[in-house]
Amino acid sequence: MTTAAPPVITRAQPRRARPVSSRSPLRRGDTGPAWLFLGPFGVFYLAFLIGPTIFMIVASFFNTSLVHTGLGSFAGVANYAEMLTRSDFWSSLWHTLQFTIYTTPPLVILAFVFAVLTNRVHRGQWFFRLAFFLPYVLPSATISLIWVFVFTPSTGLWALVESWFGITPGNGVLAGPNTAMIGIAIATVWWTLGFNFVLYLAGLQEIPRELYEAAAVDGASNWAQIRYITLPLLTRTTTLVILLQIIASLKIFDQVYLMTSGGPGISTQVSLQLITGTAFTDDRVGAASAASVLLFIVIVAVAVVRQLLDRSAARREA
Amino acid sequence: MATRTGLTRRGFLTAGLAGLTLPVLAACSSPVGAGLAGSQLNPKTLVFWNLFGGGDGSRMQAMEAGYRKTNGGASSLQATTFAWGNPYYSKVTLATVGHKPPDVAISHLTRAKPLWDGGILDPITDDDLASVGLQASDFNSAPWKAQRTDGHNIAIPLDTHPIVMFYNVAVLTKAGLIGANGQIVDLDSMDRFESALAEISKVTKGPAITSANVAGETATPWRVFWTLYNQHSAATPFLSDNGAKLTVDWDIWNDVTSRLQRWVKQGWLNSGLDYATAQSYMFTGKAGMYLEGEWELTTGQLVKGLDFDMAPIPTLYDRAAYQADSHTFVLPKKDRTPEQRTQAMGFIKSMLEQSMTWAEGGHIPAYLPIAESAAYAKLVPQAHYASTAQHAVYDDPAWYGGSGSTFEGIVGAQLGLVQQGVSTPQQARASVEDQLKIYLDTPSPL
Amino acid sequence: MSTTTTDPTNTLRTGGTSYVSAAAPAPTAARIGTSNRTFQIVSAIVLIVFAIIWLIPSLFALKTSLTSNGTAAIGAASILKDWNPTLHSYASFFQAGDIWNWYIASGITSVVTALLTVLFGSMAAFALSRLRFRGRNATYLLIILGIMIPTQVLIVPIFQELNAVSLLNTYWSVIFPQVPAVIAVFIFKQFFDGIPVDLEEAARIDGASRWRVYWNVIMPLSRPVLAAVTILTFVGVWNNLLLPLFVLSNPNLMTIPVGLATVQSSFGQRYADIQSGAILAALPLVILYLIFQRQIVEGVTGSGLKG
Description:
The complex is a heterotrimer.
Chain A (H helix, E strand, L loop, with lengths): L6 H6 L18 H29 L18 H8 L1 H34 L4 H9 L6 H11 L6 H8 L15 H27 L2 H9 L4 H12 L1 H16 L3 H6 L11 H11 L3 H33 L1
Chain B lengths: L8 H18 L5 H6 L8 E5 L3 H17 L6 E5 L4 H12 L6 E5 H9 L3 E2 L3 H6 L9 H7 E2 L2 E2 L2 E2 L1 E10 H6 L15 H15 L4 E2 L8 H12 L8 E2 L4 E2 L3 H17 L8 H9 L5 E5 L3 H6 L5 E4 L10 E4 L1 E6 L5 H16 L1 H5 L4 E2 L2 H4 L2 H5 L3 H4 L6 E2 L12 H15 L4 H17 L5
Parallel strand pairs in B: 1-2, 1-3, 9-12, 14-17
Antiparallel strand pairs in B: 3-15, 4-15, 5-6, 7-15, 8-12, 8-13, 8-14, 8-16, 10-11
Helix pairs in contact in B: 10-19, 11-19, 19-20
Chain C lengths: L36 H29 L3 H6 L1 H6 L6 H9 L1 H33 L5 H10 L9 H10 L6 H5 L6 H12 L4 H8 L4 H12 L1 H17 L2 H6 L8 H6 L9 H31 L6
Helix pairs in contact in C: 1-15, 4-15, 5-9, 5-12, 9-12, 10-11, 12-15
């Protein structure tokens, strides 16, 4: 095998690369083997994702109950009508979007900054990797317990820091209808930043140092190097991180459930909480299924819009 | 391949083989074998599910050990704890619907009713009771009456767990509120209670009484409200017709909630504290009194050097009333032989007979031979609030009601906001009506 | 990002995605030697400040776990002031004895799920990336849509399926539903798409079968992504709460998060116990991370092309 030096360049301009598979050497008579390769995954996928999803879609048109087998009586579109006219359905959807808006930028930007800086310091990289990545392996129950504790009104760690800055600690971040979601967002950024950090770090380490050296010879400052080399070369990483980040944020559940249960009032109730509450606390699987389908549609729509924006941005650049 | 960063393929394979063979090798020994191959439970083993963690969990385990000792050893009982609140009931439901229920399960009394409505429970007949020498008169009448549904016994109460008032003896002594018997003086009237609050606030230079209401805490505001609401003799049920009608008396709602807001404005009651902080205020003397279920007794006893006591919440209005629920034993629906029925009842009887152990955690035993025993009367501070069981007020039956239910969540959250001063009683009412509307209009899925 | 730890069918925390960036492995530039001193110092200071901020919550949890329950009940201040560390909370876990069973259950389910996910997911991704067949795009789209399904409600039909095939109360009931991690296929496909086809040409000339191309060419080049997906799946399965809670009833088979819930009370607050439980739950993952941290980071960039 020979050393493949050039691919970095290909990667830098990914849009112009032809899809690899179109020139795949394994072209003829692939259909049979392809299904063999897909088979094992496909069986599990059908059994535990597609099958149940079909059940969910069907159930959304019935008064399906957790306590009875079978679908129950036919409901038509009543479940959908109910959800679409429920104010708490819309408010939970709004809170979900709110959470997405709060967490996505810091999770992408901070991860990028930390990775760029870590990549540039000569010593102690292992320490920064440890510090930033460690929370990522903690269970959601752990992070929730830790942060509820940190946000304890008036005596918690957060209140202590507030008082250092001359702010009188109030009722606590999680107690305020306007601040509770910020508290959840802070905990989430702390928890999950590590993974994006590692991804960026990996991406960075692939940028050949020759590029920086050449730039340095040309007298480019550190900032200019980051602006004109690092940032563009990580564009595609960033695009994907953002997309998946958004999808994951729209599916937020654990932290809210464990930290505020949706409170104060319903000021932090998110969509999946409404769904699980309807399904498991109220036993109304049918109505919960309808809400799930609606949330699914929203997520797909957001992803499609995001892709379209991205594509048009790429076209403008080209 | 020069460098070996990452998992090598061989390493991956080895790990894979190890991962797959290791369990097989270990399969001979349980529980790994059971995990891989499934396990056939000894048909004689009684399966019991409960939701007790923490201190309650250890006491329940001690009682389970007691049962095993007299009933044929370790294999006589398989007890499993699932301590995650609402998902526990979903699990019991799914398992029963899937014909894999436990023989006996714990349920809150208020949650047993929706389970019964869903056809998840077997009724407990008088013959069942008689088969192990039990009868209705063996139980405290409040929980016993509360469990009776559609003319059947659906659950056997183990305890009553009301909300009570904890107090810091040192603080109340300074405020002059400790009587000659070493206990809190009689505060059974609004005037007396409010002047006591004022006195305590002078001592603590802060709140007199705390009650948790933020960071997801919706149950406590509900418990406090439901207690004070039902102290009014004109109190109507909050919900009627199994949750189809909203029948709360909004005048009393306004009266109670504005009273609470007044206390907050006076600085007597906290405006926003989470569960742990609310109690630590009382533990550390930053507040004199604290409202919560009696189960926090265990936590209080852990705090070194803390002198605290417990009392019923004073009767501020017309009559004594204490929000409460009960832990009960239920029989999930399943085909049982007469022997299995007797075995399940025998287990319940054994637990009831050991409920002195249970009472140490603060819960008031429902089984009268224990509740009326001399030993229980001597148990302090339990004896100081045991009378509340007689005036226990349970949540109204509703398919979306009961402890930890949607109903409690909706109403409790709004009550929490009222206490915080974020909502007025009127705004909270509007919000409750709006959010409950969908549940009032939806036929029960049970 | 990850919001899906209780998500029964989608075990991978999203974000494990931009392996795309590692798609075309290149010589590693371990550090950049061209930044000036001032920049170095400023970078280091900023990083140290944030690293400390990032560590404080975990350290606080650790401190709490070493305090007595009584002291912890009083509040944060008394925890920080307490200088009588005690292992009491930890001891109570080990005395109860169940924790070893929980570790075994979590270990087995996480390892087996990770292996099956990596194997099946990479096979599927190989087909989608390298093989041409009718319906390929539709299949890929179908799989990608799977990422977007809110999976909470699916636990009801999943429970019924497992019940029908008598797998409830076995490790398989935790493993199987978590195998189809859509995100794994997505990550693998992105990675495979970046591997130059030329390498396979050589193999093809040798008359290698598709399986051998997959196993002898693609897989060796994919070590970094294999490592990453393995670890991520492992973490996801280890931390999953809802699925094991529903499908396991035998106390000996409980996984760590379900088991730990049994020592926490819904009522009485035992903060030291709770935090020590949280730490015990995370400990194996932390150890795994410390062992593999080079592999996780460098593995992502690790080159299979050198030599």
